[in-house]
Amino acid sequence: MSATPDAGVPCRVVVCRDCCCGTRKIRGVDHAAQTDRLREVAPVRVSDCLDVCDQANVIVVQPSTEGRAAGGRPVWLGLVNDQAATEDVVSWVRAGGPGVAPVPEILDLYVFSPFTKRAAGSS
Question: Taking the model in full, what pTM does it have?
């Protein structure tokens, strides 16, 4: 996946793979297969801990140049722990991702804001 001068930067994906995400703590997920599947549709960056362990596995979909120009911003998805959810992410990225294609309703279940302060004792 490379950008052409006319197309700009494509939609990109960041996967968290450190202390919780991408480890045996999240059972029943083939983390390598998930990352490989995402790489089939977009450049993927593997990140150390994104500090939202209560949402493991975390995937951040970043807008393309076109998406950012249209007002798209990174979308954080948490608890992406099954193949169907991964396929929903893949379909959205193929459709253009943030700013180009609306977040599919099914992915609304996974969207969260990492910047929202949580009250002490809440999960």
Answer: 0.86
